[in-house]
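Example 3.
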Amino acid sequence: MTTKVIENERTAMSQHITRQPDGPGKRIGKKGEISFLGKLAPGAAKVFRERLPQIQAEAGSWEDGVGTVVDFRATLIDNDTRMLVTIVYDGDFKPYLEDVLSKAGPWLDQVFGGFEGFKGVKDRKSVEELVANTHFECDLFYIANPDVTARDVAKMQRLSKAVGDLLDAAN
Amino acid sequence: MLKPYTPALDMSDIQATVLRPRPSPYVGEYVVLRIDDAAQGREMLRRIIPHVAPADEWWVPSLPGWLGIAFTYQGLKALGLPQASLDSFPVEFRQGMAARAAILHDFGGNAPSNWEYPFGNSDMHVALAVYSDNEQHLGEILARAGQSHHDLAHVSVVYRMRFNELPGGRNPFGFRDGLHNPHVEGSVAEEDGFVPAASNASIKAGEFVMGYPDELGQTALAPIPGELRHNGTFVAFRKFHMDVAAFRKYLRAHASSPEEEELLAAKMVGRWRSGAPLVLAPDHDDPALGGDATRNNDFSYADDMKGLKCPFSAHTRRINPRDALKDDVVNVNLHKFLRRGTNYGSALPEGVLEDDGAERGGVFLLIGAHLQRQFEFVQSQWATDGNFISHGAEQDPLVGNNDGEGVFTIPKIPVRRRLHGLPCFVSVRGGEYCFMPGLRALQWLARLGDNAD
Ligand code: HEM
């Protein structure tokens, strides 16, 4: 049974939570979330650890290519038998899946490659099964600045630098 | 004399509506049928098939025009398609367009509850599109279509809608339309004299017709069986009302001269009324360019990455970004469709700013093998969202579901111009997803149940 929220000065700041219109996950403003939790194939955790420095070092480049990922974590859990991946991103999930797979496929293969039964992003059926079998929606979700996207932040940084340069020049 | 085709696509099996532009000038009619008895439905189909135009015969001058035919999920069910086959269709087709309202942003005045009958209703089974070059010919084809079911009590006409070209090939807002379509690989032989613009790259045929490899190198495996799927495709049918008076009033209120009104209108569309693209003619309309089919599509956004000529938010730039998003995750080739639009109603006389209450607008047939990543993606990500261009919730100024609070950003130096208070210039009157089979698949459908009945 759900209990009722008792209104107070804190609940006045509560964020409006919806769900993704077409696909899994909660949503606040422009931010969506999705997580994956699944069993790893035998030996997969070891391979992941070995490759991790390279995967980590390339994360910035691949994710920058995608341009909508705010936060991405992959964690080995349960004595290396399972992996948890949590992602916060801008906009919708499902409509962009195909584009993300085309753009960041090689990197995603490195991250998700150890999930039991997963045959790699080239095999779209396998991707569908992976998503269907391992995804889940979080119970509690908070996000700062829900209406500002990763792209907006980059734009604001450029703008802020331009304003700074202008003020410096005026000095 | 036209030389014979040597195309990769089986043009004799694909419906003309998929691959061929409509005649100009055109008159035509959309007809919707309901089938209450599968055997009678199939009898109607058997009779109508000889009149369905394949893509290789579309120009044959002896034909008075052509007829296209497509089926909704409910329609395929009514024809007695086995459940396993029905289940193999993609989810959006099985649900129908009305059920996808949340994804398509069909809210408020555009909500399915405000649509015309039979859109969004399970009575919509078979959609016929009849195109012709004059009234007499149209009458002839309609008569043939009528004969296919006049004596079948369980096949009924539930909707008829006439359409016709407006003077000068303009849409009711006054813009030339039907200018751009992606070039389908293998669909037009060079003997036909067609040379696609250099900047208009060929797209793999499997994006638009099932049975051929698509942009991901895949060939469709569903719906089953292959006999039904091969050379077939999907159509997103959308009927729009255009509020021409509201559009003119908005321009008048936000511009200080007739020239500025024209510029503002062009900024919203991305092309001038003549069809001349803003990136090639940034300051003034250029009717010669607009009317030149070899030049009016030969452009890219590479020289306009700041949107100073054509705003990021302009209709054509949003909905067909060409190379404007090349640094983004998006693979634009996965989000194309063929557009076979027609206009309906009369033109609102020049200069009139008050609505005369007349129904006028456009019907769009957005055709492709992947409704989800084509029509639905473009509608949800590019037309009704601003995320992909860092424009927050800003929607397409022309076709967005703006509710009187719409925003339109025009990049400019030294400061951008941002317009507020955009209303809905167009409203959805109805829509549906249809399956448009190849000609052999039509025969296959007509033979369904031959053993059972
Ligand atoms: C009543 C609604 C609409 C109006 C008044 C309208 C108007 C126009 C006009 C004037 C053009 C430029 C000329 C041309 O190529 O046809 C155009 C282009 C286009 N429209 Fe629309 N349109 C409408 C709805 C839609 C919808 C719903 C879609 C798809 C979801 C769409 C997709 C396109 C595409 C792909 C182009 C080609 C862009 C290019 O030239 O690069 N339009 N539209």
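Chain A has four helices and six strands. Chain A has a mean pLDDT of 90.
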